[in-house]
Amino acid sequence: MTLFKNIYIFDLYQYFILLRHPLPCRYTLAGDNSMFREPMTSTEEKGNLADAAYGRLKRDITEGHFTPGDKLLMSSLKARYEIGAGPMREALSRLVAERLVTAESQKGFRVAPMSVAQLQDLYYARAQLEALVTELAVQKGGDNWEAGIIAAAHTLSRVTQVQSAEEMLSVWDSRHKAFHNAIAAGCGSDKLMELRSTMLDQVERYRQLWLRETVFSTDALALKRDEHKDLVTVLLSGDSQQARAMMFDHMMTPVPIITEILRARGLV
Question: H or E element: which one contains 205?
Answer without folding.
Answer: helix 190-215
